Amino acid sequence: MLRIITCFKWVIDQADIKTSPGSRELLLDRASYRISDYDRFAIEEAVSLQEQHGGSTAAITVGSPAARKSLKDVLSRGPEKAYFVNDPSFDTLEPSQTASILASAIRSQLEYDLIICGEGSGDLYAQQVGPRLAEALNIPMTTCVSKLTVYGTQIIAERKLDDGIEVVAIPLPALVTVLPEINTPRIPGLKDTLAASKKPVVDIKATDLGQSFEPCLQTITILASSMERNGVKFSADGADIRKFVEVILKTGNIS
Amino acid sequence: MAGVWILADNRDRTLELLNVAAGLAEKLDTKVAAFLWNDSQLAEDYIAHGADEVLILPSLEEDQPLEAYIPTIVEEALRQDPDIFLVAATARGKEMAARIAGRLNTGLCSGCTALQFDETGKKLIMERLVFGGAAVQTVTCLTRPQMATIAPRTFAPAVPLGDRTGQVRELAAGLPGLVRIVDRKPKAKQSGDVSDAKVLICVGRGLEKEEDLALVRELANVLGGELACTRPIAEELHWLPEETYIGLSGQKVKPDIYIGVGISGQIQHVTGIRDARLICAINRDENAAIFEVSDYGIVGDLYSVLPELTREFKRALGAGKE
Amino acid sequence: MAEEKFTAIIVGAGPAGSTAAYLLAQEGLDVLLIERGETPGSKNMFGGRMYSYALNQVIPGFWEEAPLQRPVVKETVSFMSGKRSVSMTCQDQNWLQTPVHSFTLLRAEFDAWLANKAEEAGAMLACGIRVDDVLIESGRVTGVRAGEDEIHADVVIAADGANSLLTERAGLRKALLPGQVATGAKQLIELSADTISQRFQLEDKQGAAYLYVGSCSSGMQGGGFLYTNLDSISLGLVVNVADLQRNQYKINELLEDFKSQPQIAPLIAGGQVAEYSAHLVPEAGFNMRPELFGDGILVVGDAAGFVINLGYQVRGMDLAIASGAAAARTVMQARAGNDFSEQGLSQYPDFLKQNGVWDTMEAYRHTPLFLDTRRLYEAYPQVVTDLAADAFTVDGSPPEHLLGKMMRGVKSSSIKWSQLAGDAWKGGRSL
Ligand SMILES: Cc1cc2nc3c(=O)[nH]c(=O)nc-3n(C[C@H](O)[C@H](O)[C@H](O)COP(=O)(O)OP(=O)(O)OC[C@H]3O[C@@H](n4cnc5c(N)ncnc54)[C@H](O)[C@@H]3O)c2cc1C
Ligand SMILES: Cc1cc2nc3c(=O)[nH]c(=O)nc-3n(C[C@H](O)[C@H](O)[C@H](O)COP(=O)(O)OP(=O)(O)OC[C@H]3O[C@@H](n4cnc5c(N)ncnc54)[C@H](O)[C@@H]3O)c2cc1C
Ligand SMILES: Nc1ncnc2c1ncn2[C@@H]1O[C@H](COP(=O)(O)O)[C@@H](O)[C@H]1O
């Protein structure tokens, strides 16, 4: 029986990111949140492996109490149980802290054969939590997985790397981070949504973990990335296209 | 001991990191050490390009991936206590850096796009993109070594510095890891590389069918450019190879001119063209986001604009040559 | 999983649906509230102002907790004609007294809050789910279908807005015709809170509502509106769909044109457009209402056509909330008698009468016909603005008394005296 854990993050919807007029300051107070896009693939992979091999899937997230809203959503996507590690201070974690907290919660509360993470979180996209979590749990791991098969007590993973595909075999327990091309996440239906509200949620508070988690990175600022460009528009009629060509050639960027 | 360490998959990436590392080492009054494997020939080359020490990793068993070097590197780091450790942000580099940082219990700035050295605090001030490229986060590392992964081509490669000497040291082999390679499928080398192209014509889902790529290709030919695309064109429609899509999860490019055709301009794509010298766009929706990040745009149907544009460029360029 | 059955399934987490769900859940009923948006309100838009009385009956003192923008203390109506406009302003500080008369608000946050109230009260909220059909068994609505999934209930409440699929599927109304709906388009324009207060001469955090009739809609049936939020402005137009089609205008072009009018441009200068949205407004009025209830189904809010559209002013949220409340009371009564048939739900109009929805709709019964009078959008604004401009223009020619000016103004316009008299009579009765 395969016991799978899938790690997901509740992140700000990028479409809602606004900057205050005339400055590069971000206005995030009205932004809505969603399950990180990349993590939807991790969740789907966990659930479809469970469908093939039996066993169980638990979803886990670390966040501030506001991330509780994510639980019904994640459970409607198939996992049968959710672990919610929360504390008001958990909304500004850096990856090393997140990984330590996950490791601590998993070690004390969950049994597993396979942990599946996303390629990177939708907000920080640090691509660190998966590898760091594996190190903290001292289990083998691999990243960039585009195809995953389970054979008894080992997995075969296809990794998509810069120079080609590498197929690796890893004994369980193990951790993988998966790429979006690995599957197509299903969209939860009405019954999935109804079922989700009956599934168990395990609440884990910072104090339950019995240790503190110091940051290794300090954020100094987060500012809107400016992309100031000319913004000149031409119409599609002949004269305008000719003008466009002239202007472009004048910039000297085509030789 | 201290030092500025660098780790990269190949020579190109190593030279880029040597370039930054040399400057940092000077400020810290310390040495640059570069890791090397497979090809000990390169040791002298790296020294000529600024390395003071080359750390040679022993060759691996056939079935061992590069990540099997992690324990050896970690051990060496614990012994030598480097102050800064820079890793090329390739697929492997990112995994290795994160795992090494995890074992060393230190901070890692992933995908660093710019860095400065703060003389007073003797620390790196590093920038990286967050929220899919919509914002820039500036971080410092509170622990040592200060680690960062650096995207390919963020820095120019180091130039050879003439008569330089340095040390070459071989590290002891570690135990084989639990992850074993069972198969490799190297990628066939593509003709034309979007990451180096000076002129890029990039297509998006505004194109209706694969055959219509011919229209775009014609323009590329006239301008001597390469074809690139958005993610859906490569990943969903498979009209162009995967290594030609640009963006957050694809290639980051720095062409002299980028012309986006039928591209909406979502942030995940636009992040990849941030450093283009000139950005142009053709889209029939005048409110398309791509126009907000363009220098020059044409509002119109690509099917009528492209042929005309190609003709005009051909005429203008032809005339110029006469 | 055992087949689940709810007492009520409410389709649409707009103000009407969430109100009904909140009240029913409070009574301990099994309620399922289904919303197609990822979050309630995520796709909803309106002009910008809600009258408080209805929600105050459901959640007394709601302004203590609801996400609202500014309480409105100032109303302005402008008649626009070419280069001229005439405005009338009314400021009333009494509107600030509790229950505060009306608030500007943003739907994304307000709708999410109200749906959350329903969820807290015990309703089950399913977002991101589009209902595709009603289930009908021997003539009676027994539930809904969304994708593959069918869920049953004693009663279904159609709160799915202007273009209600449910009422159509349940056979309570026919598909809407272009003339029976208007299109509203709106931009949210960001400006600092201080700039807004200064420009509109408002005290800190108080709000204004500006309504426009006349050439803002290119002479078509409709009008413009502007509401002040805390640090943004809601600016938009409402235009009849048949008119739009006839004139081949695009609503977003009309809106851009409206923004550039000299009466509007300075009010929004320097602002950043943060959002653009468009939405349908039912405008056929009470005469064209669908069947309000059937066997196992009730219709509330926009789905029932409970909107008063004066062109320049659209009012529907208060009616949506009040009708949602009336539907909840109807369901509670039906449950007491365990009769959800058409007969068991037939008290619904009575409850609508008790809380004013019915009478309000009755009172405005003739408005749609009156508003269809094209003179309202071209000729009258022109006469009014010409007249006023005349009265204020001094150019040395011999003075004329106001009555004379008026007579001349009307005479020189395209309006016939008989039309004027008729319109005045109709207008007085229907507005
Ligand atoms: C986590 C994540 C990572 C991602 N990473 C990347 C990435 O690295 N790179 C990337 O590209 N995308 C990435 N995406 C996808 C990205 O969000 C967009 O979906 C994608 O870039 C859109 O591609 P497009 O512009 O080709 O298509 P669309 O968004 O569909 O735009 C097509 C455009 O063509 C225009 N058009 C249509 N017909 C015509 C015509 N006849 N003439 C002129 N114009 C026309 C339309 O107006 C429209 O603006 C990522 C998404 C996620 C969630
Ligand atoms: C331009 C404009 C300006 C307006 N200005 C004002 C104003 O200033 N003041 C005022 O009081 N009123 C105004 N109104 C009217 C007001 O917006 C509506 O009367 C009010 O929103 C009606 O509420 P409702 O709950 O009935 O419908 P809606 O608010 O439309 O809610 C319907 C809900 O149902 C959901 N839904 C629809 N179909 C399905 C389905 N098949 N499955 C699942 N969910 C579904 C929708 O997503 C939506 O959330 C304006 C309207 C417009 C268009
Ligand atoms: N707060 C979190 N809770 C649970 N899992 C997380 C969290 N943050 C990141 N992860 C997981 O780690 C992956 C990489 O995140 P990151 O290192 O932030 O890019 C994500 O795709 C998730 O699977």
Helical region count of chain A? 6
Largest interface: A-B, 78 and 84 residues
| Gross CATH architecture of the largest domain in chain B | 3-Layer(aba) Sandwich
Element string of chain A (H = helix, E = strand): EEEEEHEHEHEHEEEEHEEEH
- Give the class of chain B from helix and strand content and strand pairing: alpha/beta
Shape call of chain B: elongated
User: Tally the helices of chain B: what do you get?
Assistant: 8
Please identify the structural class of chain A as seen in this structure: alpha/beta
Count of structural domains of chain B? 2
CATH class of the largest domain in chain B: Alpha Beta
Shape of chain A: globular
Mean pLDDT of chain A: 94
Task: Work out the radius of gyration of chain A.
Answer: 22 Å
* Helical fraction of chain A: 25-40%
The biggest sheet of chain A amounts to: 9 strands, mixed
Task: Walk me through the structure.
The complex is a heterotrimer of chains A (255), B (322) and C (431). In chain A, 27% of the residues lie in helices and 33% in strands. Chain A contains six helices and 15 strands. Chain A has helices spanning 37-53, 69-76, 95-109, 129-137, 190-196, 238-250; strands spanning 3-7, 10-12, 18-19, 26-27, 33-35, 56-63, 81-86, 114-118, 141-151, 154-161, 164-171, 174-178, 201-205, 217-224, 232-235. In chain A, the strands form three sheets. In chain A, strands 11-10-9-12-8-1-6-7-13 form a nine-stranded mixed β-sheet, sandwiched between helices. Chain A has a two-stranded antiparallel sheet with strand order 2-5. The radius of gyration of chain A is 22 Å and the shape is globular. With 322 residues, chain B is an alpha/beta fold. In chain B, α2 links the parallel β2 and β3. The relative contact order of chain B is 0.11. Chain C is of the alpha/beta class and 431 residues long. Chain C folds into three domains: 5-68 and 106-173 and 290-355, 3-Layer(bba) Sandwich (FAD/NAD(P)-binding domain), CATH 3.50.50.60; 179-282, D-Amino Acid Oxidase, Chain A, domain 2 (2-Layer Sandwich); 371-430. Chain C is built from 15 helices and 19 strands. Chain C is globular and about 85 Å long. At the A-B interface, α3, α4, β9, β10 and β11 of A face α4, β5, β6, β7 and β10 of B. The complex binds flavin-adenine dinucleotide (2 copies) and adenosine monophosphate. One flavin-adenine dinucleotide binds next to α6, α7, β14 and α8 of chain B.
